[in-house]
Amino acid sequence: MSQASQGLERVRALIARGETTGLAEELLQQTSDFGWPDDFGPCFAEVRQLPHDVRRRLGEIWTERHRAGASQDFKGAVGTLLHLVADALPGRPDPVEALRRMDELSSAYEYYADHELVTLARGELDAGRPLPGGFVALLRRCQKTAYLADRTLGRILGRVDDPVLNPGEPWAEQAMAEAPPGLLAHLLTATGARPTVAWDKEARALAAAAESPEALREAAVRWLGLVGAPRTIELYVHEGWADHNKTYDPYNADALKGLAWLVSLLPPDPAAVRALGRLVETSLRKVPGIGPHSPKVANAAVLALARTDHEAALGELARLSAKVTYKGTLKQLTTALDARAAALGVGREEIEELAVPAYGLAEVGRREIRLGDAHGLLEVHGAKAKLTWTNAKGKQIATVPAAVRRDHAEALKELKASAKDIEKMLGAQSDRLDRQFLARRSWNFRTWRERILDHPLVGTLARRLVWALDGETPLLFDGTDLRTLEGDPVCVSPTATVTLWHPVGRPAAEIRAVRERLERLGVTQPFKQAHREVYPLTDAERTTAKYSNRFAGHVLRQHQLNALAAQRGWTARLRMAVDDSYPPLYRELPEWGLRAEYWVEGVGGDQEGDLTSSYAYAQVTTDQVRFHRIDAGQNWAHAGGGAYTVRSQPVPLREIPEQVLSEVLRDVDLFVGVASVGNDPTWQDGGPGGRHRDYWQRYGFGELSRSAETRRELLARLVPRLAIAERCAVDGRFLEVRGDLHTYRIHLGSGNVLIAPYDRYLCIVPKRASTAADAAGPLPYEGDGMLAIILSKAMLLADDTAVTDPTILSQLGC
Are residues 334 and 372 in the same domain? Predict the structure, then answer.
């Protein structure tokens, strides 16, 4: 017999015996425990048939219980039961009170006492009154996300069609104010992975009925521009729970999918392409405790870009493929680009190169604009696009001319948007070029010159890199043309092979000459190439033969590690404090037929700070680096440690090509250098339970990693250029800084600071420090955040008498 049937028998028995108090408690218990009106409806029917005085007595008992105070769910159960006997109570429940309760519930993301929601909604609808928009949004979210969505709740929602979208999200509210009739209701039907022929047909018909397709596209771009903006109805956040104010409303997410599909059916336009690209990125932005906003919306936007017949759409797909790390969406991007490549009869690598737009740049890194009497110049400087203006008299001015703002507002808006697009694409193309070391990409000279060196945008990166001709001769661009290291012009056959130059295996004299030549030219490389760390096989690795322990024994912040690993093309699964097994971090190298693995395991679990609110390990410890054949079986280990389940034998390290070994170990060095808790000045106590105190001390002030050694070599040349040069000196593992109060030693690996002569620790939590690096003049490469931190701390401490931060002053003895 079911629980509902058993409950019904107990209710009937209590009614037969006239035990009103027991009946009240039984019904309250059933409703608060289970609360599904469809299942326990027969019990409620029994209550409605009771005599007036019995129902009044039940209401009095329940009212007292409600006043006594209890949990929200319990009060919800009481509220449901009171509505059953409302007509028997003196003064029926006031509709104003019902409205107050609905407004109160509108701040909830979801609510598990469905019976109270149904009772409130049914009462209002039966009385012919509309439901508040925020309360409707709650009902819809409960129906869409609840583990056991109530059937009665579904029937209630079938009586509600206003508002058409859930209020609270700015984009949805703007769309409801501007959308033509029927459009939003159709967008909500976008529930599949891709639109059907019938869906597209209806969407086109609705677009045709609008003022104009162009006007509808402009409106859609406005709506998409508001996606991700702060909510207008703030949702209540329970302590320790995820904050749903920072993610999408799940009911509106389908409409967002439909909106993306609709945009791809409207006349193409760069602004629409830009809006779809932003939607992909916003939808994949992670929310703590939840994950990405909505991968399904991101995938819909990728599909929309793939369906958009515009040069900018192909460029946006190429940019996103270089930046997106979420595997499902990355697969969608790969499929879209492969389809474009097949249609054009070229390879995947070629389509990524052909897809990069010029953004109106008539020459490498330069675009001239004439708007009325004003002359604008858009130039690429490093990773930035800078727009400057000259007035009719030929004088350069600091701001946009008033006539341009007044008479050419739309052109100016598009110009500024184009500058932002350039900066985004520069970052993506820099990442793509950096990956070519392991992609084994090569070009014939003619193709390389056309697509890479002389491309209006990519050329700004390529001309700051070093290239190898036929695998031997290094080539550099000296501001005018290609030259050898000796400065001689280059005479090259159009069929000669060009690759990115890599320092592995190169003579020390050549590496030194490359660095000196770049320094003389004042070149800042877009990523570390000439100064790239090299990781040759060590004696210890020759002894272990099949694995490297070079980066074992570290304690890393798991979420930061996983994010960085994804950026570098690795696959990392979040380790939870559960009885489950996971593969190691791994990176597939199809061009080499190999799979690299880095073993990690969760640490702790019994101390505050060991686990996140979603029970993921906050930190992991590291173990071996191994290589396997790419088609070998996947290996596993328990989340919390223990023996490995090894399904394939590793490839001996001596058989790994030296460039592959070096690049993989460089990635792992980067993971440790960025994600180690030893870099965190607030971890001096060793973290949860103090268990990592020895590690923090050992890492924070110990031997330098290969990347930190590169930083030391660079600082040795940078320090003489600094305004504080007389107060600084590179000394072994430290940058020594002489202040007026003390002498300080900044570790070149972690950035941690000791006060001499007794090595007393000085805690300085770093802030943004890019301007400090700028003070050293042109750097040989971009992207070393730790270098900026070290320089900013050096400049602060060299003038320690000017320090005003009370936390630092207290440690200095001031």
Answer: no
